Structure formats: C-alpha cells, structure tokens
Amino acid sequence: MKARHKRFLLIGICMALLAGATALVLFAFNDNLMLFHTPSEVAAGKVPQGRAFKLGGMVLKGSFSREADGITTHFTLTDTAQNVPVLFRGALPDLFKEGKGAVAEGSLDAQGVFVATTILAKHDENYMPPPARDAIDKAHATERTLK
Amino acid sequence: MKLKALIPLIVFVALAILLGWSLRHDPRLIPSPLINKPAPEFALPVLHQPDTQMTLADMRGKVWLLNVWASWCVSCRDEHPVLLEFSKRQLIPIIGLDYKDKRDDALAWLNQFGDPYTNSIMDTAGRVGIDFGVYGVPETFLIDKQGRIRYKFTGPLNADSLEHVLLPHIKELQGA
Amino acid sequence: MIPELGHFALILALAIALALGVLPLWGAARGDAALLGIARPAARLQFALVAGAFACLAWAFAENDFSVTYVAQHSNSHLPLIYRLTAVWGSHEGSLLLWGLMLTGWTAAVSFSRRLPEVFAARVLGVLGLVNAGFLTFLLFTSNPFIRLLPGAAEGNDLNPLLQDPGMVAHPPLLYMGYVGFSVAFAFAIAALLEGRFDAAWARQSRPWTLTAWLFLTLGITLGSGWAYYELGWGGWWFWDPVENASFIPWLLGTALIHSLAVTEKRGAFKGWTILLAIGAFSASLLGTFLVRSGVLTSVHAFAADPSRGVFILALLVAVIGSSLLLYAWRVPRLEGGGLFSDVSRETALLINNVLLAVVTATVLLGTLYPLLIDVLGTTKLSVGPPYFEVVFVPLMTPVVVVMVVAPFLRWKRHALPAIVRQLWLPFAASLVIGLAGAWGVGVFSVRGVLGLSLATWVFLASLQLLQQRLRGTPAASAVSRLADIPAAWWGMWLAHIGIGVFIVGVTFVKGLEQNADVAMKVGDSAQLAGYRFTLQGIDEISGPNYTAIQGRVQLWRGNQLVSMLTPQKRVYTANNMQMTEASIDAGLFRDVYVSLGDAPTPDAWVLRLYYKPFVRWIWAGCLLMALGGLCAALDSRYRKRNKSEAA
Q: What is the pTM of this model?
C-alpha cells in the first residue's frame, strides 16, 4: 500500500510538472515566435501592424542614408518585386552592404515603415541568410508566373 | 511495464521522422522557382572581347549550359578540372558567367587552369546573377532550345554528378 | 604524399574499428578469450592511426599544402602558424576528424583502465568500436579532408576571421572532448544491458568517465561563450543559438546523469533512469552533430551544409540511438528495483532534480526544433526568439537550484521533514532578506533581481553551513586534518554548487544592470556611460599579418582618473575581403567596459558601441568552478582503488 501510495505521489508530481512546463512553453511561444515575412507579403498587407516579425531581403542599391546623429539609418529592403522602407538606430553589422542580403527584426509603424530592432547580415562573402534568399526566390517565382 | 520501457524509443522515432522530413525540406534543396521558366534576358560583354556583347537570343536553338563562376571562388577550383574534361567531349556549349569578378583576375585564372568555356561573359555588377537567382558560386543552369531553364545544379559539379545527373538531362533535351 | 598517408591511415583505422566492433562482442557472447584479447590492442591501434591521420592534416596546414582542397579552402600562407594549426578544425571535415580523434582517444583511454573486468571491458570497447566504425565511414565517404585539389591553388582562401581568435584554439577540442566523452558512459550502459550486470560497482566504474566528459563539456561551453562575447562584437555571452543549444542539451542530460549515477552507486536505485540518461546524453551529442552538420538549422556556426551528409548522419543517429533504445526496452524491465526510500530523502530530492532537468532539456529541444517542425508542416517560416528560452528556463531552473541547496543536507533513505526545516529555515530567511536588501540597494529591484540574489546568497550560506556541519565537534586544532579527510567527491559537489551560485550572481547583475549605447564620435569627442567617460583620441591605420585595420584609441575615464586605454579595431582580412570587429575590453572582477568600433557615417566620424557589463566575469567564473568541482569528483581516490571483488 505504501509503495503504491508513493507511486501515485510521484506520478502526480511529474504530471503537475509537465503541465506547468507545458503552460510555460505555450505562454512563452505566444510572445516569442517570430514569423518571417517577405517584402511582397508586407506590400500585400498580409502583415499586421505592431507585431514583431522578421523581414528578409536585399538592401536596395542607393537606398541607404544616414541621419545627422550618425547612428539612425534608413534603407530599403527588397525582394526585387516589392520594397519596404526600414529605419534602424544603432551600429550595423560588419557585412551589411547595399546589394547584399539582410534580415531585419522589428515591426511596422503606422506609416508602413519597418522599424528594426536588430539587423542580421550574412556571415561571409558567398552566403546569404536563407530567409533573405527565400524572399528573393519567392518574388522571382511570382514575377515569372505573372508574366 | 514493458510498454513503459518503449516510450523513449517511440519518442526517438518521432524525432527521427521529423529530422528526416526536415532534410527533405531543407530550404537549400528547394528547386529553383525558375525551373521550366524562360531564362532571364541578359546582354553582357564577352570576357575576351569586352567590346562585343552576348545575349540570351544568341543561344536560341541550342541546348547549352550556363556555368556561374568567379576567380575568387575556391569551390570553382574543385569544379574546374571536371568541367575542362567535360568540355573536351564537345557534347554541349558551355557558357561561363564570370560573376562579380575583375576582368584581369578572371583572364589570369583561365590562363592558369585552362578554359573549358565556349564563350565567357562578364557579370561584374552581379545583376544577371541575381536575375538567375544565384546564391552561391558555382552554379550551373541547363537551358533548352527555347531558352527555358530546365535544370539547375547548385555547388561544384563533380564527374559523378555530371555523368549521372546532368548528362541524362542534356541527352533528353538534345534528342527533343 | 603525406595527405595520402593520412587518408590511408583513416582507411586502416576503419578496418580496425570494424574488427573492434565485431570480434570482442562476439567473443564476449561466446566466452572466447582470444577474441576478447583483441579489444585492448585494437583500441590503441585505432587511436594511433587516427592520431596519425590528424597529424598528416596538421602537417598539410603547417606546410601550406594548397593542393589539399580542405587546406586551400580554410588556410592561407599569411595566416600565423597557430591559426594554421587550429584551422585544422576550422570547418566541417577537419572538425569531424577531431571528433574521430577524440572518440578513439577516449576508447584508448578506456583500454588502459585495469579496473574493469575483462569481459565487460571488451564489451565497452566493442560498443565504442562500432560507434567509431560508423563515424569513420561517415568521415571517409562524405567528408574526407584529404581530397586533393589538382592543380593546386597558389594561395589559400584563408580561415574565417571569426575563428582567428585564441578562444577558438581551445573551444572545439574541449567541447568535443565533452561531447564525445559521453560515448564512454553510453558504452558502459550498453555493455551493462548486454551483460545484464548492473550494480553499484558498475555505477562506480562509470562515474569518473562521465564526470570527466561533463567537466570538459562545461569548459568547452564556457570558452565558447567567452569567445562569442569577445569576437561577435556585441557583448552577448549566450544567444540560445541552435548550435549553442546543441551543446547545452547534452550538458543538461549529463548533469542529470552524474547525479543519477551517484544514487545508483550509493543506493542501487534509479537503474533504468541512469541507463536512459547515459544513452540520452550521447544521443544528444549525436543529435547536436546532426543539427550542425546537416545544415537543417541555420545559425552563426553552420558552415558548409550538405544534404548527403545530413542523410548519412541521420542514418548513423537512427542506427546508434534506435538500436540502443530497442535494447533498453528489451532489457530494462528485467532490472530489479533499488533500495526503498521515503518521500523526504536525498533520493527523492535527486529524483525531482533529475525530472526537472529532463523537462528543461525537453523545452530547450522543443524551442530548437520548433522552427523545423513548422517548416516541415507548412510554408510558414518562423524562429523562436531568445526570450522564449529565458521565459521557460528561469522558472524551471529555480526549483532545481532550491532542491540543489537542500539535497546535500538530506540523509539517504529517510529524513524527518521537521528536522530539515529546523536546520535550514534561518539561512533561508537570511538569504531572502539579503536578496531583497541587496536588490534594492544596487538597483535590480525586480522579481528576477530579488530571486537571483536570494538564491545565490542561499547557495553560499548553505555551502558554509554544510562545511560547518562537517566540522561540528572537531577541535580547532584538528580542523585541517578533518577537512583533508573529506572525500574529493564531496569537495567536487561543494565547489560545483558554489559555482552555480556565482553564475547566478553574474547573470542577475548583467541582466539587471548592463548598459550600452551606440554613439557617433569624432576625434576629440567624449561620451558618458554608467559613470565612465569615453574619449576618442584618435583613429590609426595598422596592419597585421593577414589583415589591415583601423584602430580607435579610446580613453576610459572615471571622474578625473584615467582607467585605461581601449583599442577597438575594425579589421579587413586581405585574402577574402571580410570585415571583422575586434572589441576592446577593460576587464575587471566587478565589471567589464567593452568598446567596439562600428562603421564611419561620415569621413571623420565613427560609430562606437559602448557597453558596461557588471559582474559578467562571474558567469564564466561560476562555470569554471563547476568544472573544477567535476575535476575534484573525478579524481576521488575511491574510483582509482582496484576493488578485489570487482576484479574477480
């Protein structure tokens, strides 16, 4: 009887733990899953304003500018079909360049500008972040099917 | 009791299935969206005669390979001897797209290692490469008589992939 | 010639590994002494061959033999010799060869252990031989580092600048020592399942191996974290990057395993659980290898990804883990249960912690694999941000630390609840007060701040209390000899637990009090952060062996006192034109000041990132204490005494 009682207790504790952990995971997922969107999806209005997401694409040539404070930057991310203006305050990663792939994390403001909190650029010369590449591929695909 | 001991195995099998699926779904493996679509138009200077231009239309009526390479690309060195061997068999014209490269470097490179290309064109700005959806050098496109991309190979070709992957496609298209 | 020699050595090693994986196991099943006798020499020969192959590759790097593809891709004649040598494991092929070197090294080490009964040792070595055979096949068929590049390149492509750092010299070898070291615990578990012998002696023999692997893994992860802090230029020390998680998951399981083994050794309980954890820790190492090498998850670390490699590792994973779990399901129901224990006992405490650690492992694994799952199920792409891990990790680890503090006070089998409460309430209450006051005093008055400081204080007070308990009734004169009598394993536990406390202090202060600013500065400008004044004195152009750089001279002032001169650099590596940020750090026990140089918005101004990181060193100090604890425990003399009854 004693052993059985203990067994129930143990199973009970484990179940409670698992339930707690599951609740915690769901709660954390709710806030921290970051969806990935392409500039075309943003332009099509598929992305809600205010919610954080990742935007991938290529930094449009000639779109980069910097404000007088030296650290607020503006540029445009493109998947070659659509463009999204991006605003970022802070130091840019080493490999951030016009014409190269980049992924920005942040959200859209009321004017449709993507306010980025983090910019990720590719890590070496021949490598583009897969989400950025994906965005460009998808845009190409749509472009071709439209033609 | 026995069933309980099987739980870890079941969990692992589920995990293994997920991993297997994810391999098949590897984003790197997604075939180019350009497959079976018309190849992007281009007009680029020829490497050996920078005053003349070559366009997509020049190749119409032929089945041909577009090989994207650069002198700064080390994997291209892997691929190069394979390509050189292959070009000697004169099965198909190979056009080299020298991607984001300097002309002098490219010429020196071809002098040093040999030139497998029927013709080489320079995409100094990388614009045409982007149109083709190039995301790593080397890449090889197989283009048919109507100017459609029929097959794309990412990464360095080796003798095996040329013989058993690319060549059957080439034969099929040339027969058509 | 030398690379071909290395290639040949690898092929021979594969043959030996196959022999080692088949013959001794067969001999053990049939009781054939001649076949058993093959195990030890084969294990050593296999190691010598792989070490030879490794030396050949190192030679090719040292001699700048760019006719070897791997060397041409990852080295350069201008690279300093030390980085040419570390470039051996700078990318996929070479790091796998390092893996193989470690695996055969551990196997050879086991072959020198004379404490193990002959048949059992043959089984352990046989299992390791099988793993190694699978691994060498993978290496030879998909990732051979000795493939020639003909004609050879005139110059190499250089090592990824991120990896040109002293931290990278030691990080992968230590990490792999740990990763691969769990293969020994795994082989012990499998051999025990095959043999049906699963007793306290088994656990005692397995413990030092597991502890050693765990301590190397701890060191490896610590160094990796330190490297990221220095080298990635934004002062982070843990990113919950998939590859970091891939090393953290085996660490969590390994931590559970060393505790579970203690219970199995002392009380004969948790047998099935211990075996499962031993299989799990090594499986997690293999899974980590799969995730990194197959490229299904992209991260800072994922170098060349190749689907055929992914398929191969997955097959290896399924063969190794699948067959061992099948064996587990078949054999484990026959294990008899261990000693009984009551609800309040050290066994219960360790069981709770084990279950909690397993749950934490599952949540980290889930967070790591969830993007994969979604990618497979649909078209959406998403990522799980670091906040997920923090939100889940802290509440789950808090009870782990609480139980960790209480457990050493509990007796095995049974302890009276009132007695333990009486013993512990005072330091607990004191910690709460100190935590509240401390958090308020230094300005981290949040739930996390109070929780962190209280827990850490409690860990420290309880450790003192444990020591005092050990010395109770001892006259002051003989206290030293009394301390010397305490077994090394106890000191190991004591140190590692204090390490957790030190770690918590570091994390709490860094998370609560760190400050940073990105500022654009011209020469002569000053900026303020956290009571420090940063003055940009000048920008110089300098050149290193394989790079050119601009270097800022930044004076760090506190009031009117010059604290130090910081020299952050922005390097451009000449061979591949890659840009790298080298941070400059004024390190201290209680705070780091960290400066990195960004880009130039105008020709005469630069963006500087300034960081103030209080107590950040404590994070690594805590980890080092844990590793030191592991070392003490692994060296405990009782693991080295040859037990007569075991030998028989």
A: 0.83
